[in-house]
């Protein structure tokens, strides 16, 4: 499977601690909620967030500092990192590859947090977008297919009839240039 470029949801950009405000504080609050250490998602890293971080750190065997360091970010984002890990290419073709990739992504139970169509699991497949105008189910499906269709050095061979059934919206039986690059049609 392809190597996914790290998204800002997963990159450690420096320590985050009490007093932080804005997107970084929100991201910590979202990841805490996804990990069962929920706090109000208010973009303000205050005492409640610090206490939740300490609880998370204790639960993961990390030093309970209440500050989000690189080790804490790695632990908070571990479910998404696992979902993006390379898989062996299944022998059965595109369907099997898509099912394998989807299973890996669904195993950590991705979900919204902080409102409808919001949170790291929404933004990642939606290229950073979120909110009502960006239904993440569509982004998730496209992301899975992109990952399934792009194993390094290999092509997913499917018949053109099968391809056209799998890739809805292709007009007049002609796959787009994007799809021809991703799937070898015969």
Q: What key attributes describe this structure?
A:
single chain, about 190 residues, mainly alpha, Muramoyl-pentapeptide Carboxypeptidase, domain 1, 2 domains, two-stranded parallel sheet, 9 helices, about 5% strand, globular, disordered C terminus
Report on this model:
The protein is globular and about 50 Å long. Mean pLDDT is 80; it is low at 155-160 and 167-186. It has helices at residues 23-34, 47-59, 70-76, 78-83, 94-106, 120-123, 136-148, 160-166, 177-182; strands at residues 156-158, 183-185. Helix 5 (94-106) packs across helix 7. Strands 1-2 form a two-stranded parallel sheet. It starts with 22 loop residues before the first helix and ends with a strand. It has 186 residues and is mainly alpha-helical. It folds into 2 domains: 23-79, Muramoyl-pentapeptide Carboxypeptidase, domain 1 (Orthogonal Bundle); 82-185, no CATH class. It is built from 9 helices and 2 strands.
